Amino acid sequence: MGDRQVAVVSAGFCEHASKRSDVNMAELVNEAVHNCLNNANCDIDAVDAIVAGNMPAFEGANLPELWMTDWLGARNKPLMRVTTGGSTGGSVAIAGYYNVAAGLPGIETVLTVAFEQQSCGNTSVGLSSVALGEISIVNALGLPAESAMRIFGAGAAIGIASYQAINYMNRSGCTEEDLARVVVQNRRNAAKNWWTHLKMPDYTIEQVMATPYISYPLRFGMVTPASDGACAMLYTTEEKAKDFADIPAYVNGVASVSHETAILGVGGAGAGQLDPCEQVGAVESAKLAYAQAGISFPEKEIDFAEVYSPFPNQELMWLERLGLFEENTAHLRYRDGTTAPNGELPVNCSGGVNSTNAIGASALERVAEAALQIMGKAGNQVPKTVHSAIGHGWGGCINLVTLTVLSDQPRRKWRAH
Amino acid sequence: MVRLEYIKKEYEKTRQMPGKWYLTSCRYKFNITRFQPFLSALKEKRLIGLKCRSCNTVSFPPKLVCGKCLTRPDQWVSLRETGIVATFTANYMKDETTGEANAFPVIAVRQDGADTTYLTQLNPKVKFEDVYVGMPVKIKWKDNTEGNLNDIDYYDCIDDPTQKMDSLTK
Amino acid sequence: MDKVGIVGYYQVQPSLNLNMGRYEMIFNTVRGALDSVGLKRKDVTSVVSATNDYYDGRTISNCFTVEAGGAYLKDESKVEMDGAYAVYYGLLRALSGHHKLVLVWGGSMPSCFPYSSSTLLSTDPTFERPLEIINDLTAGGLQMRAYMNKFDVPAEDIAQVAVKNHKNAAKNTSSLPESRMPDISTETVLNSDVLSSPVTELMYSQPCDAAACILLAPEQQALKIRDDPVWITGVGYSQETYYLGDRDLSRSQSMQDAAQMAFRMAGVKDAKKEIDVAELYEHFSHEELIFAEALGFCDPGQGPSLSTEISGGIPINPSGGGMSGNAPCATGIIRLIEAIKQITGEAKGYQVKDVQRAIASGQNGFCAQTNMLFVLEGGSK
Ligand SMILES: [Zn+2]
């Protein structure tokens, strides 16, 4: 039981843009599916099961996996959809892993698809409705709807990021220029990757600092765009992997530990995270996933990281919580170039979520790009050989975290059964 | 507004259809009877939190479930009127007359004696630039309390003893 | 496939307007399931939930359920389909060897949202939604008419299924109180309000508030927790194409594929002989007949002649099935719980004799576009 080794053999993307007005949701997804299957030189018949995921509230379409059956290639095939907010893509990647790892007879090759066409819907409605239930609770407890909306609306998405940024800068001494430096690196990387949204090859720190604040300390030039896009990834067993790819990327550890909600919880749950950049969930996820992968010294053993960071301060925070840098030192590593594509630990060479954010797909893209770096097929391939890489995602009120650890070697058989 | 240039590609247009998520047709149920002691205390200008008997976590405002123990906390404990700013952000509101966007601080307060935070507003007269993490604050009640969350008018700054100490050492 | 044991379960009493908040309902369900076998939260290693953003009226519906759902600092995920799919994901997690005890819960509160208009949102947004013709009711009407025409089945035969299920629900204490009708007749069913001709009100599974939870553990772990777990020995699922015009609505291709996969896994060769009881999630009464045919209990079109009473040859839905209350996202789990009760002999008042092997199903989409089937077996083999 559980001895089946899982490998990523292919990944596919569609072109990302702020408005993919030339396609509808289903066609957008189909582009990524096609790209993925083409890269593996196979057709949909090779696929035994499908895992899909998006955040349906952003497009105003409930259960989209049903009407896009044919575009997903799911006709008369098993299909399951997982959705966990921003970490949806990561959850899709993990569900794909479990589908293969469980060892059910007849399910060996699994296609995972995550997508979001944000131009279809109203992103701010999607985001503000995260807390609607909580707003209704404080409203029931007597706070007028208008002021509840105002106070709790500030807590959604960018609000949470600015809380985190304030606390992170407070504890690490990182400056606004450091945040801008992260953004510039991401946008310049994105220019070298074909499918990304904000390609800015000549972006500079000065340009970022010249833009106005959206929410202190985050500036207009620092925040993630809203993109249309989709990503697909193909999983299979160790035995079959070589049929699809020369160098498969083996999935050696997965974890999605959730913590209580920060800031917004009232009445039912949450708000016990006093410091939103402490991230116990991410620390625990890392522990779990690294243990599964047999990694004891992540800072030395991980060669490449793709972290989910719509806002630059989060990139610094996650790298520390995931054990890649020492506490409060991540911004120094950006200053000395450790995280550049030719550095010691390249980070987000795909351009990251800061350059491209099709919310449901973003976390799957992190895993896919990490796998492609190992396979040597990434759009912005790093010069050094990547042996181990991680793909990370977060969602909810910074309480849901997903982490996938990939390697060019199958997992050591350390677990006694 | 500064315009940022990035490499763009234009796509042709397809047909667009109207669609809507009828969020307004959703209702949210919440059993208020469990929170009645909390609301009655507010009417008397007292603050109480719920304490979990098995892990001693105190929640303010009271929480239905203790996630750590998966139990229902049932012990009410008194809290002080002071607290500290756990974290904060700004809310930008347009001034109706001048059209300027002003920053209003929104703070997450950890009440002294409690282990959770509550998102609320700071005294509107306090400048956003002066707020910091760890700032001590004190509750400001409305004059006529009615037994609901609206009885808390806002939180006001109070003297920070640690800052006083800093100035003495200088 | 390795076996996975179901070691505990709990279900909130369904109601048309449950007198609790959402978190309270979830907490009661999860706590109840753990208490049913005397386990603690720290024994749980993974939590999978089934909720829906549209039914809960909020984005990321699992965001605030972390604590009430017992997922605080646990490996957690959410499946946004029927509860049966969450059970499937839980099963995968238990089989992977990473987890010792997986908690699966699902539920929603239709008293807080308009169920039928929310199903309108799951239609194809480009071609179907602007017309506002297709929703779950009209799709059910189209399917029933297609079935009746294809096989010359009179409406009375389909009403008879509803009668059986409502009578069964009357014996089941955990059914929706409004669905219990011990004295119902085919005339009452046929004369009830027409929802979408020929479907009438009493042929439709009424949405209600409820949540359900089960605990899954891999074989060795399950035997440590209790001596007599019910085993999942087979699972199968499949999805058909979406557009109703592309499908033969009088039969269920997805259920047939699901059954093929599940029966092969469980080593079932002749479903009619080897299955002792079936708990099927039927959204409309005619779906039960279509499923029975797809499962191989009888030839296509012969569904009405099957003896599916509690004492019959192949009892289907002794608990009342979907007619006994349909809580979106929980019904699949509730069907599973009812099948477990039949195996362990806990189904007081509607117990089928000598149940060794049972099946339970969950579905999603218009005209049961996608189906999930579990084969359950008793005995501590
Ligand atoms: Zn506790």
Account of the 3D structure:
The complex is a heterotrimer of chains A (417), B (170) and C (381). In chain A, strands 3-2-4-7-1-8-11-10-9 form a 9-stranded mixed β-sheet. Chain A has a two-stranded antiparallel sheet with strand order 5-6. Chain A is globular and about 55 Å long. Helices cover 38% and strands 16% of the residues of chain A. By secondary structure, chain A is of the alpha/beta class. Chain A contains 17 helices and 11 strands. The model of chain A has no long low-confidence stretch (mean pLDDT 89). By secondary structure, chain B is mainly beta. In chain B, a hairpin with a 5-residue loop joins strand 5 and strand 6. Chain B is extended, with a radius of gyration of 22 Å. Chain C has 381 residues and is of the alpha/beta class. Chain C has a domain at 4-114 and 210-225: Peroxisomal Thiolase, Chain A, domain 1 (3-Layer(aba) Sandwich), CATH 3.40.47. Chain C is 33% helix and 18% strand. Chain C has helices at residues 22-36, 53-56, 83-95, 115-120, 136-151, 155-171, 186-191, 219-225, 253-266, 271-274, 285-294, 331-344; strands spanning 4-11, 46-50, 75-79, 102-108, 194-196, 199-200, 210-218, 230-239, 277-279, 357-364, 370-377. A 9-stranded mixed β-sheet of chain C has the order 3-2-4-7-1-8-11-10-9. In chain C, helix 3 (83-95) packs across helix 12 and helix 6 packs across helix 11. Chains in contact: A-B, A-C, B-C. Chains A and C meet through helix 2, strand 3, helix 4, helix 6 and helix 12 of A and helix 1, helix 2, strand 3, helix 3 and strand 8 of C.
